[in-house]
Amino acid sequence: MPPMTFHGVVTKAGFMRKTVTVTVSRWVIHKLTGKRIERSKKYLVHDEKNQLRRDDLVVIRNCPPVSAMKRFTLHTVLKSPETERDIARAAKVQAAQSTPLGSKPKGVLESLNKS
Questions:
Q1: Rounded distance between C-alpha atoms, residue 79 and residue 42, angstroms
Q2: Coil, strand or helix: which one is 93?
Q3: Is 68 helix (H, G, I), strand (E, B) or coil?
Q4: Which keywords has UniProt assigned to this entry (predicted)?
Q5: Contacts of 60 (CB under 8 A, 6+ apart)
Q6: What is the residue-averaged pLDDT of the chain?
Q7: Phi, psi dihedrals of residue 20, rounded to the nearest 5°
Q8: Phi and psi (nearest 5°) for 112?
Q9: Residue 13 to residue 20: CA distance in whole angstroms
Q10: pLDDT value for 112
């Protein structure tokens, strides 16, 4: 039988070592009214490298029990907003360091030379 996988969002991370809480949401149709309702369930997920942060979009899959409550493990990280932010900050700092401190944009130099 193939492993069961879910897409979810990390809602709690950093409180337990190698463990995060992932909320998996799904839409169901109400039997009487016919309206769509969002149902969600929380799973404790084993994160071996402690790499997950809050609001990460992940794929989890079932595995043999890791502990009394953990039955899922991290399969893939689809999107990580905080990691993307950190990478953007690092690129910005690197770009600032690569330009000389005394240099100014050409438009500013030209306007100073004219006056």
A1: 19
A2: helix
A3: coil
A4: Ribonucleoprotein, Ribosomal protein
A5: 5, 6, 8, 22, 24, 43, 45, 72, 73, 74, 75
A6: 87
A7: -130, 160
A8: -70, -40
A9: 5
A10: 46
Q: Residues 55, 48: contact at Cβ < 8 Å?
A: no
Nearest to 78 by CA among 22, 39, 34: 22
For residue 12, the surrounding DSSP H or E stretch is: strand 5-16
CA–CA distance, 36 with 26 (Å, rounded to integer) = 10
Structure tokens, 3: 């492993």
Contact call for residues 61 and 47 (beta carbons, < 8 A): no
Q: What is the largest CA-CA distance in the chain?
A: 78
Q: In this structure, how many other beta carbons lie within 10 angstroms of the beta carbon of residue 44?
A: 19
| Structure tokens given for 83 | 């990691």
SS3 69: coil
Least Cα distance to 50 among 85, 10, 87 occurs for 10
Q: Is the pLDDT of residue 52 over 90?
A: yes
When comparing pLDDT for 18 and 106, which is higher?
18
pLDDT for 82 beyond 80: yes
